[in-house]
Amino acid sequence: MDRRTRTGSPSVRDVGRRVVVIGGDAAGGSAASQAKKRRPDLDVVMFERGRATSYSACGIPYWISDAVDSEADLVARTPEQHRAMGIDVRMRTEVVGIDLDRRVVHWRDLEDGGSGVEPFDDLVYATGSVPMRPPVPGIDATGVHGVQTLDDGAALRAALESGDVRRVVVVGGGYIGLEIAEACRIRGLEVTVVDMSATPVGTFDPDVGEFIADAVRKEDIELVLSDAVAAIETDAGGRARAVVTASGRELPADLVVLGLGVRPAVRLAEEAGIPLGTSGGIAVDTGMRTRVEGVWAAGDCVESVHRLSGQRVVVALGTHANKQGRVAGINIGGGYATFPGVIGTAITRICELEAARTGLSTAEAEAAGYQFVTAVVDSTTKAGYFPGAQPIRLKMIAERRSGRLLGAQVVGREAAAKRIDALAICIWNEMGVDEILSLDLSYAPPFSPVWDPVLIAARKAFEAVEADVRQL
Amino acid sequence: MDRRTRTGSPSVRDVGRRVVVIGGDAAGGSAASQAKKRRPDLDVVMFERGRATSYSACGIPYWISDAVDSEADLVARTPEQHRAMGIDVRMRTEVVGIDLDRRVVHWRDLEDGGSGVEPFDDLVYATGSVPMRPPVPGIDATGVHGVQTLDDGAALRAALESGDVRRVVVVGGGYIGLEIAEACRIRGLEVTVVDMSATPVGTFDPDVGEFIADAVRKEDIELVLSDAVAAIETDAGGRARAVVTASGRELPADLVVLGLGVRPAVRLAEEAGIPLGTSGGIAVDTGMRTRVEGVWAAGDCVESVHRLSGQRVVVALGTHANKQGRVAGINIGGGYATFPGVIGTAITRICELEAARTGLSTAEAEAAGYQFVTAVVDSTTKAGYFPGAQPIRLKMIAERRSGRLLGAQVVGREAAAKRIDALAICIWNEMGVDEILSLDLSYAPPFSPVWDPVLIAARKAFEAVEADVRQL
């Protein structure tokens, strides 16, 4: 099969060409719908082992806290909506094996136990990720929950609504860990978060993370930092009753949530011989092709290029999964699209505090071999004299000598964190802080001081770059 | 004097070198303080004819509405603060002539009527702008107010507090016009706004401007559109009593506010022989040098390069004035800085509605000779299912064939408009909409749908570019 056929050039008839998609969430759903939209003559079969397609896993904490009314609100596209587009959706059906020689997948119906094979011309591998489970005693006890899938969310919600839970320990103080901690606190539970870093959300520098820690503590969530889970103690019935930490603390828990992040779900791929990359995610090219002819991959299970470090990284985020799925689907459908990589942008709201980051943190910049200067400014979200002006802290990390912006972090309240996008685009375009301070950014008193915090930080970073150059 | 001396290279002693600054607001104040900071041995004399230095003219509407408590809140740096830095500030003193041959300025003390001359080695021309006054009968009547300076603001406030004003007509429905209209409405007055455009704030396209019109009308502010002021009728005492429009409407008014925008205050420069540019503002190079040796200019009185149209334009905005003043001051002080031009970014809040723009509007793009496609998307400020998600409309204007982003406009509520900065940086970097849709922007449910509105608009604009290319 030559590349023209493989990429589905519109000049080639594809009647009967069959695309099998493994996984019906963001990446798989996007790939299936884009391919089908571009080439209605394709047979597209999408397998999903869960009960929902194309849902917002990021929304689960807000469903747990009742900010979002129902599970259905989190579903962007139901199986029925996918079917209405002509996609053959197989729900509660797990793909258990991939045979690349025969070009079939083996599947099992999780409801009736039935099984079968499905042939493919193109395969989209979009299995997502699985929660990290530290190999400690008791980790598989009843009452230890992940929050990866909508089904996980439903199970967690059911447990919380049982009335048996008063004390929750969240293992891992990253984005999801803190969001779940806050949700449980809103439900009136006692909540403790355990994290290995000195400040929560370790992807932030400590001078930004300390704001996050303060905000979390203000909500009466206990933080156990610079510590790790060593064991989960269970009662006679095999149910979690406490988390024991490496430092020896025993944290009573009626329920444990694992918020340690995720790793790519690559078992099936490994078994089939679809190569992984250096990061442990599926290796793909810019068009989301794996190294196996006709096999594509997208979403949390793949690795992406980090545009600053040059390394391959796995970043499990819905926004990337949607883009990557779209790219795969367009290419399968005979179009042309690429996924040009990531720069590490992330945002969260924690107990009324907003925090966001992009590019490299100082630790990441060091690890990537960069030398740099930093600038931290404390400013306001509106003109200082304007009613409702809120503090905002902005940190910039700029390369020595060149002044190129390598990373930025922002923390504040109300309308603070989304400003990270401006900095993400500066980084994407490899701008130096000297040029950033000249940018024509919007100004009016309800929105920023006349020197926008971004510009002030760029000025300060530029002064640091200049001072450093004088000493070189 | 060679350039090294002129730009104040630190290797040259400048004892007794004298810098005269005309105008003590954003541009003049920044230039004076930067120059003095870098070269403490400079003699810096700053003339200001008003009663305040370095204030936020943009904040005046919020002082009128009482959102800001006092005039003093709008002052970023008082004369005393400037003096503490070693700047010789002459308040209420107007420069009435510039003699470039003798290198002196002539000044007059507005308080005691005294006058004198002040010699200079370097001159910074930072006279700001004057409100447009249409040449119609009655325009100079009592009760017709500008809102250009803090003193104008004080006069307007005093008039409104006199108790004699019930009906206000604002001539001009641009940013300042609408902000003042809202302020007067908040004070409980009857307010009418007259504007020549079909939708208010004519720098927005009509499909965005219609949202602004709706928001204004919801506040019970009457809009008279596609009409202009033809005369101001006065009573026997010479006081404004009504605005008569070109279409013949008579709008009763106890007070009239001119919000027609401004023009650069260049009279003194013209008289002295400092050349203007094609736009009518003072012509300057990237370092804020005029075409006269040792004479610099900055702020509302100068013209800037528009980076998209390539034309010289006058944009009166505090953010530019501050940057330009800083650049002039750094260069005078022997450093090196440039002002690389503008792209037309602006933002406003009108009656709870936020609106912002950057780059070229469709009318401006046409005038600049571009051909383009447009995309308008209606999305939400948070994930659609998230509590408090607000509608947001985003419009993109992309060049035919290349797909380069030429302009963007955004309108919505709460945390909508400041997102324009991201688009401004895309335009600054000459990004195409195809690359924009791949950007690594921040996503979490409290901040955006998983496809950020910026990405959705870029997708739609890219599809429009592709559809257009097929027809070329």
Look at the structure and name the CATH superfamily of the largest domain in chain A. Answer: FAD/NAD(P)-binding domain
The SS-based structural class of chain A is alpha/beta
Number of domains in the coordinates of chain A?
3
Which value, in Å, is the CA radius of gyration of chain A?
24 Å
Beta-sheet strand percentage of chain A?
Answer: 25-35%
CATH architecture of the largest domain in chain A: 3-Layer(bba) Sandwich
Keywords, please?
25 strands; five-stranded parallel sheet; FAD/NAD(P)-binding domain; homodimer; 13 helices; alpha/beta; disordered N terminus; 3 domains; 472 residues; 26% helix; globular
Question: Could you please describe the fold and organization of this structure?
Answer:
The structure is a homodimer of 472-residue chains. Chain A is an alpha/beta fold. Chain A has three domains: 3-130 and 263-332, FAD/NAD(P)-binding domain (3-Layer(bba) Sandwich); 133-260, FAD/NAD(P)-binding domain (3-Layer(bba) Sandwich), CATH 3.50.50.60; 352-471, 3-Layer(bba) Sandwich (FAD/NAD(P)-binding domain). Chain A is 26% helix and 26% strand. The first copy, chain A, has 13 helices and 25 strands. Chain A has a five-stranded parallel sheet with strand order 3-2-1-7-18. The first copy, chain A, has a five-stranded parallel sheet with strand order 9-16-10-11-12. Chain A has a five-stranded antiparallel sheet with strand order 21-22-25-24-23, sandwiched between helices. In chain A, strand 19 (304-305) and strand 20 form a beta hairpin. In chain A, helix 2 runs parallel beside helix 9 (318-332). Chain A is globular, with a radius of gyration of 24 Å. The relative contact order of chain A is 0.12. The model of chain A is unreliable at 1-12 (pLDDT under 50). Chains A and B meet through helix 9, strand 21, strand 22 and helix 11 of A and helix 9, strand 21, strand 22 and helix 11 of B.
